[in-house]
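User: Here's a chain of 343 residues. Predict its fold as tokens.
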Amino acid sequence: MTDTAPRPTLEAVAARAGVSRATVSRVVNGSHGVRERLAERVRRAVEELGYVPNQAARSLVTKRHDAVAVIVAEPETRVFADPFFARQLRGISKELTAHDNQLVLLLTEDRDDHVRVGRYLAGGHVDGALVFSLHIDDPLPQLIQRAGLPTVYGGRPDWNGGQGGVSYVDSDNRGGARDAVRHLLGLGRGRIAHITGALDQTAAVDRLDGFRDVMAGADPRLVAEGDFTPAGGERAMRRLLERCPDLDAVFAANDLMAAGALRVLREHGRRVPDDVAVVGFDDMLPIAEQTDPPLTTVRQDIEEMGRLMTRLLLRDLDGTGTPSEAGSDGVILPTTLVRRASA
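Assistant: Prediction complete.
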């Protein structure tokens, strides 16, 4: 066995810096009121000794845990298979790391998971929460509200009847869908179908509304519900070909479903884009570039959504954001149509 060197203490740092223990405590906890010359001596002593603050003791002083719960309202099989979640988590993780905060990932699949997450949030383990991929009947907003945690949501909320006071970040799903359908009309396509996402999520509803904004009065058989997965896109595409074999374009509510639709069209001998033009949503690389043919799609900056959600939450926790920065009525990020070979 080897002896482990004792951890440096506040007293050791104070002795090295030639200041009081209270001064060291204020510097390492980020408090104000210490002259820069003294603060620099403390920081130098901390680095020389390798002092690491005791998080439990620090939390007693700062009332902060420097930890944020990231709650994804999906089962782990979906989260780890869909690159959308990886991108959003990457943006969140980068921003939290830059501010020396820990990410605590919580996934919910069934009622027991909701109870567990609600109990954890109410236990005071984290400073706030970032939540995305909510479904319309999800109990999470109520559980979070009861826990009293500052929260920013990814995606437009629908549980408060459209009232303000809920912080969220979303993309212009409806406007992006309109751009996709207008592009297909501009190509001379007249029988444009839509594969929706899961309609218990607001992103899917908004994209369907955008489709209907442009295709008012379209044959209802040209709309088939999917679930944001490749298999869901395949099933929806088969239904559409059975109902409307003369369709000449498809707008899918995400790139994964568009990839599934492309496979079914190929199986049925339909050439893309000659016979059927296809547009997706997300610009999920490398998927959109590696489909056959490469996919025309609507780009949303998923990683930036994660970063912005995190910045808004941290500003709220620090009390440094203005009401608009805190996202009290939501922040909507623009989308862009990216043209490739499929349409």
